[in-house]
Amino acid sequence: MVPWLSPDEPFPPVERALGASSGAPGLLAASADLLPSRLVDAYRHGIFPWYSDGQPVLWWSPDPRMILRPDDFKVSPSFKKTLKRVLRDPAWEVRVDDDFAAVMRACASAPRHGQRGTWITNDVIDAYSTLHRIGEAHSVETWFEGRRVGGLYGVSLGTMFFGESMFAAMTDASKIALAALVAHLRRSGVALIDCQQNTAHLASLGGHEIARKSFLAHVRATVSAPAIGWRFDKQVLADWTGHRSAPESAVPAV
């Protein structure tokens, strides 16, 4: 039985999450609250919330875990051409934290194959926006001709990044934001990005599964490290095109 957590009750050990033979592999616990303090504690223990509107907050720790190592990020020849075009055309921008809540709302309204509705409710947006205000959640946004056309958001603790969701209103717009994020994280010494669950799209970009035990060992070793910086723009995309770009200390804030 999945335990119900009271507001001050800690998470059970992740090894108690439901197994592969259950109808909900990885489900660990449920609660009524989505307090920012609970969210940070969850990520520090390799746990994340995922549920539908009208359900209690459901907390997950699947085994295996989908991850992306920045060094393994795959850039196809056609996408490399796209990145070169983005780099030379001033109509394209990559902005960081321009409007975090707007990115979350765009992710909430993005259509998902095989899914109806969204788990990114107003309460979820409020909780993650609080993390953003204290510097523990960030958005990376793709802009074209002054319009936000794609982006992503996630949680950043120490030298660990936990990806949450992406959206695109133009072809490759979310992928451009992801390429910029991955380049920045690689430059910042982040060795692993949490992708939570396996999808064909993430696998095509270099993501793969690792055992939960290995994932949690990495989380424990990185979440308490000094926080990385969040100053970068589209010039980091040059890492994937074979062109040199300015060191991040010389990249202007956006």
Automatic annotation (TrEMBL):
Name of the protein in question? Leucyl/phenylalanyl-tRNA--protein transferase
Q: Which GO terms describe its cellular component?
A: cytoplasm
Keyword set includes Transferase: yes
Q: What is the source species?
A: Paraburkholderia tropica
Describe its function.
Functions in the N-end rule pathway of protein degradation where it conjugates Leu, Phe and, less efficiently, Met from aminoacyl-tRNAs to the N-termini of proteins containing an N-terminal arginine or lysine.
One matching Pfam family is Leu_Phe_trans
Q: Which PANTHER family match?
A: LEUCYL/PHENYLALANYL-TRNA--PROTEIN TRANSFERASE, LEUCYL_PHENYLALANYL-TRNA--PROTEIN TRANSFERASE
HAMAP family tied to this protein: Leu_Phe_trans
Which Gene Ontology molecular-function terms are recorded? leucyl-tRNA--protein transferase activity
| EC numbers on record | 2.3.2.6
Give the similarity note: Belongs to the L/F-transferase family.
Main localization (coarse) = cytoplasm
User: Catalytic activity, per the record?
Assistant: L-phenylalanyl-tRNA(Phe) + an N-terminal L-alpha-aminoacyl-[protein] = an N-terminal L-phenylalanyl-L-alpha-aminoacyl-[protein] + tRNA(Phe); N-terminal L-arginyl-[protein] + L-leucyl-tRNA(Leu) = N-terminal L-leucyl-L-arginyl-[protein] + tRNA(Leu) + H(+); N-terminal L-lysyl-[protein] + L-leucyl-tRNA(Leu) = N-terminal L-leucyl-L-lysyl-[protein] + tRNA(Leu) + H(+)
Where in the cell does this protein reside?
Cytoplasm
Stretch forming the signal peptide: none
What taxonomic ancestry is recorded? Answer: Bacteria, Pseudomonadati, Pseudomonadota, Betaproteobacteria, Burkholderiales
